[in-house]
Amino acid sequence: MATGSSMKAVKQTRSKARWILPLCAAVVLGAMALDTKVVRIGSEEDLRQQAFNPDRFGTDTFPRIRDYVIGKAPAAPALYEALVADKDAAIDEFGTKAGIGAVMPVTFTGVLGEVKAGIFDVSIDGLPENVRVRLQSGPAVNGTDLRDVTGDIAFGAFKNQIEYQDAGSGINRAMSSEVLEGLDRDTLIGKTVTVTGAFTLINPRNWLVTPVAFEVAQ
After folding, report:
1. What does the H/E/C string look like for 78-101?
2. Angstrom distance (rounded) from CA 58 to CA 176
3. Strand partners, 101
4. Domain ranges of the chain
5. How far is CA 125 from the centre of its chain?
6. Cα(176)–Cα(170) distance, integer angstroms
7. Among 5, 39, 182, 211, which one is most buried in terms of CB atoms within 10 A?
8. In this predicted model, what pLDDT tens digit does every residue of 54-67 receive, in sequence order?
């Protein structure tokens, strides 16, 4: 049978427990609060913003690609002559080896002809008649010419093949937004244009150029 003093000790212990436990909980919650950083949804620190965003990548990367192509591009007749004379030497001088063929920068002034799905045939003085040059004008721009032309956007920098492909699409969209926005394609046939861009060299007599600069003569 418990004595009076032992009963008193039990009551004191229970009384202490009633305020010690809430105090411990408050201390733990306080520590958690100090260790927790509040991140606003949509901010740069939002984890969703840290996932790969192809459009942001394209917007950030396209200006550098544009400047590279403009600084590197030979005139179309000179490039064709170099390819005919020594294809490998021309690639080494002007191009970037990538995938199934080298990506070549080029610049030209020519007259736009027939168009199909936003792709124009271009007549360029100084090129033989059997050389066909076509120009992507959007709204859809396909291929990875712009992604691959500098040679420093490598697959290993991305999580998987899907991200790598999406990077190319993001660059194309950034180019379209800057270069092709508001282009009145229905009125361009017969117009003289000055273009700088890039194409994948598969057939030296058939070029499909993706532009980085596109100017229509007035």
Report:
1. HHHHHHHHCHHHHHHHHCEEECCE
2. 11
3. 98
4. 1-36, 51-216
5. 33
6. 10
7. 211
8. 999 999 999 999 99
Contacts of 87 (CB under 8 A, 6+ apart): 204
Residue 126 Ramachandran class (φ > 0 left, ψ -120 to 50 alpha, else beta): left
Cβ within 8 Å of residue 35, ≥6 positions away: none
Taking only the tens place, the pLDDT of each residue in 101-137 is: 899 999 999 999 999 999 999 999 999 999 999 999 9
User: What is the CB neighbour count within 10 angstroms for residue 109?
Assistant: 16
Query: Can you point out the beta strands (E) in 26-80?
Result: none
- Whether this prediction's pTM lies above 0.85 is answered by no
- DSSP, collapsed to helix, strand or coil, labels residue 151 as coil
- Coil vs helix vs strand at 212: strand
One-letter amino acid at 162 equals: I
CA–CA dist 101, 67 (Å, integer): 22
How big is the chain, counted in residues? 218
- Using CA atoms, how far residue 24 sits from 19, 29, 32, 135, in Å, is 9, 9, 12, 71
User: Which residue's structure tokens are 């520590």?
Assistant: 31
Distance (Å, whole) CA 79 – CA 15: 92
**Distance (Å, rounded) from C-alpha 145 to C-alpha 169?**
10
